[in-house]
Amino acid sequence: MNHVLVDVGPLSADDVVSVARHGAPVEISAAAQQEIGQSRKVVEALADDVTPHYGVSTGFGALATRHIPTELRAQLQRSLVRSHAAGSGPEVEREVIRALMLLRLSTLATGRTGVRPETAQAYASLLNAGITPVVREYGSLGCSGDLAPLAHCALAVMGEGEVRDATGELRPAAEALAAAGITPVVLQEKEGLALINGTDGMLGQLILALHDLRTLLATADIGAAMSVEGQLGTDAVFAADLQALRPHPGQADSAANLRAVLADSAIVASHRGPECTRVQDAYSLRCSPQVHGAARDTAAHAALVASRELASAVDNPVVTPDGRVASNGNFHGAPVAAVLDFLAISVADVASVAERRTDRFLDVARNHGLNAFLADDPGVDSGHMIAQYTQAAIVSELKRLAAPASVDSIPSSAMQEDHVSMGWSAARKLRKGVDGLTRVIAVELLTAARALDLRAPLTPSPATAAVVAGLRRDVPGPGTDRYLAPEIEAAVRYVASGEALRAAEAVTGPLH
User: Which of 26, 49, 223, 375 registers the highest number of CB atoms within 10 A of its CB?
Assistant: First the structure.
């Protein structure tokens, strides 16, 4: 596996996914090490200055007015980390914590934080050893950045608190670091603050969600195509000239995917002639590109925000290139929080329209000749009746998760931090939303595949046939009722892994 080089410049989103999810090793570039060393000299020069400097010789937040004597400054940094490692609740997922640590290391590598080179290297060493600090669900207000989650990581670098080792075993940090040959860091001036003052947790989760949504939104187009086909809908409305009348790029891409996936479908061709009396399909079928396209455009905007954040050096205070140590407000998570909330809305909307398409398959008044609930013997068998219930329950939850977190500021730190972003909460909501959307799309594919099989002897398009064939490796075709939950989970894996998308693309070529 290729190393990810942490340089003075920004990481790519793919670098973050490689390290967070796939365990790619990291290395700090020589240029970054030099920049770190230069900025550290600035901090050390200020350590003996009689003028107070925030984060170097003062307390923090509402306690910033106290000047801390030299002999207490190492204790100041340790106390900061220990007191801020105050998270509560369930453990946060390993990939989120690894993304958070890598992104903090990336900011350290810019040389704008004033840490020592060995402190930055400790983060790289923990990542490479597969040691993951235990971070708890609750504790971040998204301003000053993700304080509590980052503090739990800094605590582990100090050799304190709990971690999961490379095997996933819960161990004291000191023990795990010793086993990996890593020396705990004794924090010096400014370092504790530099390790906890960033938007890395919310940004890491945004990057991971965008990575997953690239696959999910293309797969949602495949599910929509299968539903149009299985419900004897028309592909005429997806024509490029009609879509161009409303030139949203996401809509155009989604419609192009639908055309590609439905190409050469004998089912669609069977009712294309003048004898067909259907004038228009229902909105959930006809307007799929508009709904899916809006989500694509939202994701594109969010990716732009993420790229800007990846290029940022978020800390307070920062060591500027001209040698100043300056306070600022760049730790505020508002830009990231807003797009996290925006994506949660789009996720709920795409799931909602997918559930409506699925429901149409099950109703004899709307499914154009298929059995009720696609059951083998309706009344004796219930078919996919309750699979749609599962979808509906998830969609209802996604609608609740779409309520924005970023407008729900709550004051803290004796009113010094009187407006916060709640970006971490927005990220946690979106993470749940992406999982829910995966499951909703999976049930649509599962149901649409059953319907396409029931349209025999008419044959589906080569692309949708390939998607059905891939699903059939783990899920049998139509028949009497079976234990349905394992089949739904198999479909979830099929969608989440990207296998469903790859099956279609083996026929169509790359989809948008």
Answer: 223
Amino acid present at 178: A
Per the confidence metrics, is the pTM higher than 0.90? yes
Instruction: Report the C-alpha gap between 383 and 481 in whole angstroms.
Output: 6
Q: Is residue 53 very low, low, confident or very high in pLDDT (cuts 50, 70, 90)?
A: confident
Task: Confirm if 470 and 497 have CB atoms less than 8 A apart.
Answer: no
54, 123, 389, 494: which one is catalytic?
54
Tokens 């010096």 sit on residue: 188
User: Does pLDDT of 277 surpass 90?
Assistant: no
**Secondary structure (3-state) at 133:** strand
CATH entry, 205-313+347-508, from 3.40.50.720, 3.40.50.1100, 1.20.200.10, 1.20.1440.230? 1.20.200.10
The whole-angstrom separation of Cα 427 and Cα 213 is 14
Question: How large is the angle between the packed helices 462-472 and 423-454, nearest 10 degrees?
Answer: 100
**Residue pair 467/442 in contact by the 8 Å Cβ criterion:** no
> What percent of the chain is modeled with pLDDT above 70?
96
CB-based contacts of 132, cutoff 8 Å, min separation 6: 94, 97, 98, 126, 163, 164
Cβ atoms < 10 Å from Cβ of 69 = 8
At residue 40, the pLDDT reads: 94
pLDDT digit string, tens, across residues 205-250: 999 999 999 999 999 999 999 999 999 999 999 999 999 999 999 9
Number of H helices, E strands in the chain: 20, 9
Which among 25, 350, 404, 17 has a CA at the least distance from the CA of 212?
17
- The CA distance from 292 to 449, in Å, is 20
CA 152/CA 104 separation, integer angstroms: 13
Domains 4-198 and 205-313+347-508 share a fold: no
User: Which sequence spans correspond to the domains of the chain?
Assistant: 4-198, 205-313+347-508
Q: What share of the chain is helix, strand, coil (3-state, %, to 5)?
A: 60, 5, 35
Cα–Cα distances in Å, from 397 out to 62, 423, 428, 429? 38, 20, 14, 10
With a cut of 80, say whether residue 12 has pLDDT above it.
yes
Q: 3-state SS string over 323-335?
A: CCEECCCCCCCHH
Spell out the residues 6+ positions from residue 429 whose beta carbon is closer than 8 angstroms to its own. 340, 341, 344, 401, 405
Domain spanning 4-198: CATH 3.40.710.10: no
Is 389 among the catalytic positions?
no
Residue 207 tokens, joined: 């990057």
Q: What are the φ and ψ backbone dihedral angles of 319, each rounded to 5 degrees?
A: -95, 110
* pLDDT recorded at residue 62: 57
